[in-house]
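Researcher: Please generate the 3D structure of the following complex. Treat every line as part of one assembly.
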Amino acid sequence: MTGGPLTFEADGVPYAGALRVVDVDEDAGVVGAHAQARATRGWAGVAADITTRTGGLDADVLLSGDATPAAGEALLAAVREQLGASISPADDPVWRRKLALRAALAVGVGVAAGLAGAAWDRRRRG
Amino acid sequence: MKPAPFHYVAPRSVDAALAALGEDAKALAGGQSLVPLLNFRLARPETLVDLNGIDELAYLRKSGGTLRIGALTRQATLHRSSVVERGWSLLTRAVAQVAHPAIRNRGTVGGSVAHADPAAELPVALTALDARFHMRSAQRGPRTIAAPDFFRAPLMTALEPDELLVEIEVPALPDGARAAFVEHARTHGDFALAGAAVVRAGTEHAAIALLGAGPTPLRVPDAERALCNGASAAEAARIAGAALDDDYRRALTTELVRRAIEEAA
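Model: Done. Output below.
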């Protein structure tokens, strides 16, 4: 995913812009992105430098012209919607490693319990 | 002026681009160098292969401590990246001095490397960072070349006509490494007359690459060794500058190297 167009409305004014993925830190499970949009009527713009982790999003929002904080919130909502559609926890290597560890642990516990049960059964049968 | 007539192809994948490349074809990335050459008719390719639709070549990825830069990554993206700034600040500093924002918005990292202008910032920074260049060809498959073997002469690289630069791999720097990129241009944003990229990590690691000091980015191992052995910034800079014949360029380069070493201390 490299990004895509963004459209949203804030304070009754339609905005249009784009989201761009800047970088991916696979070691830390972090995606950096930049989003910006301008009002299609009047003089207003909003931009954000965004850092996303699994289940979280931090952003530095910059407003210009007549843009209000509502435009910043609407921009981030549009970003969340687009990223939510394209980034799932399964894309996060840290999440995948944790899942693999938990699965291995569950299998190990299951096998150990099975072996212990079979040994107990053999002793019970004499 | 307008370019001479050419066939235009816009592939959507690397494989399709490789199929279109050949002896009389040129790859178009950001177009900040190639388009002026076409307009002046200094380049007259039969076919122009526009890479801008190949999204798979536009990425910045840190994986296993190594930075991987897709050849079509815009210079502005490199400049904006916090991953690059944290781990390879030399690239952030170097790309900040590439022309102006409008040019960096279109210009690509791979384009600057493949164009191999001896006065360009990114090839010098990548040489100081011991980068490796990954290339692919439809006939010969993939190959990887380190910076000193990649840049052959002014505007000439190891790339064959049917080959495409696909990725630039930059290894992790030693812990505590600091970097500086200093250049001098008569006008801000113009091609620099001289410059220096320096990476230092205590007395264990030093890399100095010079801009405009020769036909290709130039590493100065004698000055690097001197720096590791405890030489002062001025002494190491004097050794680095000794590689140049021209008095003015030698004086300018020596001073720029000294400033870069002190900035990276």
